[in-house]
Design a protein that fits this description.
With 362 residues, the chain is mainly alpha-helical. Strands 1-2 form a two-stranded antiparallel sheet. Helix 3 packs across helix 6. The longest helix is centred in the last third of the chain and has 27 residues. The protein is globular, with a radius of gyration of 22 Å.
């Protein structure tokens, strides 16, 4: 029997898990360059379809439903308040299904998010969750590998924006999105590699860690680099208190991250390294201006917000005309300010409640 004959998809009898696997692992990798919207539109459509199929299979399969009442109440209250804010929004139709650049701020998206939590909660055992995490590490390798190829001008290279950095969209269509996706898998790769009993498996996770750090460095995404630094610090703290042996891979990853930061960030953004640490670089300063405007928006719409999906319209109302013409902000680049702006302070508080309850029960 060959190795290929031994490889099989786990839980083959579980159709629901097969759909969830496609939802979690395949959808982030799906893109079609020939479409008008080759990335987000396709992914969002596939996500909706796969989640709908998974929900139907869950209803057919499960006669009993496991409910965490506190979490369920918080999620439903979040969705209900987003619907209420729609009635007072600047554009109710946009609040229902956002049409401004992104799909992640609408009642429809919030509903998908809540349904996802419900389906995963009912369907995933520890073994299935572990398999999904390992599969996502493999997906992060693929995303980082395509970033690396595109940095050499291979495979759907989008060209160069000389003022910023080479555009390496990879599978997610945007270097920032790709980098944010793969950096979240770094702790998973490090911990799985540390826990592995086989040399080949450890080598695989070492390669995954290198690719993830390399991909983050190539993207020059400062948010992802900050996340990478925080992850490495937290892993080091975990190693000190749990297992000193974990310090070796963490220190190695930290060294690799430092070398790649100074190698790639200084190359792709040579004039902004010092400005970044001084918080004076143009895009950073524009974020500060945007956050000030978000606070103004929140003070103008403290209860119902602008309505999901309507942030871009409210932003142009409060932003100086010259700045608004140059910078388009349909997203606050801060999840807390964003939710408070589009759904008012109640939506922001409910989100904090969901995070708190989830941290206790999960």
């Amino acid at each position: 029997m060959t190795i290929l004959n031994k490889i099989r998809f786990p839980f083959p009898e579980d159709k629901l898990f097969s759909v969830i696997f496609l939802l979690v692992v395949f959808v982030p990798l799906a893109f079609a360059p020939g479409l008008t919207d080759p990335y987000e539109g396709l992914k969002f459509s596939l996500y909706s379809v796969f989640l709908g199929v998974a929900f139907i299979l869950l209803i057919i399969k499960n006669k009993t439903v496991q409910i965490n009442y506190k979490l369920t109440f918080a999620l439903l209250a979040f969705l209900l308040w987003s619907i209420i804010s729609t009635f007072f929004s600047l554009d109710p139709l946009t609040s229902l299904i956002e049409t401004n650049l992104r799909f992640t701020s609408s009642v429809y998206f919030y509903g998908l998010w809540i349904f996802s939590i419900f389906v995963f909660w009912q369907s995933l055992s520890d073994e299935k969750t572990t398999f999904l995490l390992k599969s996502l590490v493999a997906a992060s390798i693929a995303i980082a590998a395509l970033e690396i190829l595109q940095s050499f001008g291979i495979a759907h290279y989008e060209g160069i924006n000389a003022g910023i950095r080479p555009i390496i969209p990879s599978f997610l269509g945007n270097p920032n999105f790709s980098s944010m996706f793969i950096v979240t898998l770094l702790p998973v790769a490090v911990i799985f590699g540390f826990q592995s009993r086989f040399k080949l498996s450890r080598f695989y996770y070492i390669i995954a860690t290198i690719f993830i750090i390399w991909g983050v460095g190539l993207s020059s995404s400062r948010g992802s680099m900050l996340a990478l630094a925080v992850e490495l610090v937290l892993l080091a703290v975990l190693a000190i208190f749990q297992s000193r042996k974990l310090l070796i891979p963490v220190l190695a990853a930290s060294l690799a991250a430092g070398l790649l930061f100074f190698g790639f960030y200084s190359t792709y953004r040579p004039d902004s390294t010092g400005q970044t640490f001084a918080l004076s670089e143009r895009t950073i300063s524009s974020r500060f201006v945007a956050w000030d405007n978000m606070i103004t928006i929140i003070s103008n719409y403290p209860v119902s917000g602008t309505g999901p999906g309507n942030l871009i319209m409210a932003y142009h109302l409060v932003s100086p005309s010259a700045f608004a013409a140059e910078q388009v902000f349909d997203d606050a680049h801060n999840i807390f300010l964003h939710l408070a702006a589009v759904g008012g302070l109640p939506l922001f508080i409910l989100f904090l409640g969901i995070a708190y309850i989830f941290s206790l029960c999960c």
